[in-house]
Amino acid sequence: MTKRTLVQFFHWYYPDGGRLWNDVGERAEEMAGMGVTDVWLPPAYKGSAGGQSIGYDVYDLFDLGEFDQKGSRATKYGDRTQLENATNSLRSAGLRVIHDVVLNHKIGADEAERVMVRRVNPDNRTEIEDEAFEANAWTRFTFPGRAGEHSKFVWDMRCFTGVDHIEDPDENGVFKLVNEYGDGEWNSEVDQEMGNFDYLMGADVEFRNNAVYEELKYWGRWLSERDCQDFRVWPGIMGNKESHYVTTQRTCHTE
C-alpha cells in the first residue's frame, strides 16, 4: 500500500486578493517532488462575505468564483478559471485534489420568509418551547446572480431545521423552524453536545427533506466531475444520512 502525504494548502488567515489558486498551481511540481501525494484546498464556493469569505459561511455551493454575487465574482482564493487551472496543474503533477466542504448550514439568504418558529434553550437544544409563533426568517436562497445556471434549486424554509436570528419580532437566539420534517424535533443522529448538536449556526440544513438530500448529492457529483477528487468532512455532527451522502461522493476524508 502506497503511503500518502497530505498538505493543507490554506489557513484561517490566508490573505485576501484571490492568489491562492494561482499559488497552489505554481507549486504543484515542487510539492510532488517533495513527496506530497494529496493537496487539501479551502472551500471553493461563494460564502456570504463574498471575496472576503474564508468559506464556512456557505452561500452558494455552485458559485466557484464565476458569478457576481455577494459583492464579488471571485472568491477569496480566486475565480473559477484560476481554480480550474490550479486543479489541472495539481493533477498533471500526480497530486490528488481534496476540497474542504461545509454542508451543515447556509448563510446570507436572498429573501426573508414568514415562518413559524419555537424558541430553543441555546445551552440545551433538547429544550424546545411548546408554543410556536410567527416571525420573519432569512431562509430563501434564490441566487439571483447565478440565475439558475448549474442548478435551478431554490432553498426555502422547508430546507432548514432552525435559524439563529428572526425579525418581527427582532431576536437573536436559537429558533426551531416548524415544518413537515422531524415532528418539530432536531435530527437525533448527531453528537450530543449541548443536548443535541444538529443546530450549529445560520440556517441549518434539513437533511430529512429528500429534495435537499438529492440536491446535495447532485452538487457532489457536479463538483467531482470538475475540480475535486476527494472531500474533507467533519463527522462530529453527522447523522446516518449525511454520512451516506459523503461516502457516495468519491473519497471521503474525515477528522
UniProtKB/TrEMBL annotation:
InterPro entries: GH, GH13_cat_dom. Its EC number is 3.2.1.1. The keyword Metal-binding does not apply. GO terms for biological process: carbohydrate metabolic process. It holds the Pfam family Alpha-amylase. Residues 4-255 form the Glycosyl hydrolase family 13 catalytic domain. Keywords: Glycosidase, Hydrolase. The keyword Cell wall biogenesis/degradation does not apply. One of its GO terms (molecular function) is alpha-amylase activity. PANTHER family: ALPHA-AMYLASE. This is Alpha-amylase. It comes from Sphingobium yanoikuyae (Sphingomonas yanoikuyae).
